[in-house]
Amino acid sequence: MTKNSDTHPAIHLEYPDWVDTVVDWERRYASDEEKMRLTIAVSRENVVRGTGGPFGAAIFERDSGRLVAVGMNSVVRFNNCALHGEMVAFMMAQQRIGSFTLHSPNLPTHELFTSCEPCAMCLGATLWSGVRRVVCGAAREDASRLNFDEGPVFPESYRYLEDRGIAIVHHVLREDARAVLELYRTTSGKIYNG
Predict the structure, then answer these.
(1) Rounded to whole angstroms, how far apart are CA atoms 41 and 22?
(2) Integer Cα distance of 109 and 103 in angstroms
(3) Residue 142 Ramachandran class (φ > 0 left, ψ -120 to 50 alpha, else beta)
(4) CB 101 within 8 A of CB 130
(5) Could you report the per-residue pLDDT of 49-74, keeping only the tens digit for each?
(6) Considering the entire predicted model, what is its pTM?
């Protein structure tokens, strides 16, 4: 019996073809600023190339500075509301290392860099992803100026993660990250909430 693809759809996630022109997979990223610059470059290229929204993310090994995965907003490209930059980064990192968690005794400590403070979905997924540190560029209110609804994220949301051993750092290269949001606004990028 042949399965009907309309009733049994498959999801296949891959990076846009420009990723290897922006990402140096062999480089070691030594500082928060270097890691955030890469993350912002991914978000900017996503806008410039028209492959998605103005949000990028990257997963690094904390101690070595090794890049494990990047993520870019792919909601419109794949017609999938779950494919925010952070979610794509989590999925790609876990696929690359072959584990559903980035936090286990046999793995190095991982950290998430994100071009903007995460929405409610991505912040929740952060807890289960296994990263031990989150570093954010632009602020929630920067995304809200474009009418992106970040959902129910409160100071208590961050405190919840911190209480579980996940360090949070805000506003690293905020102006650079905010510039990508402004670029998206001036190019009339699609606002894809609900």
Answers:
(1) 7
(2) 7
(3) alpha
(4) yes
(5) 999 999 999 999 999 999 999 999 99
(6) 0.94
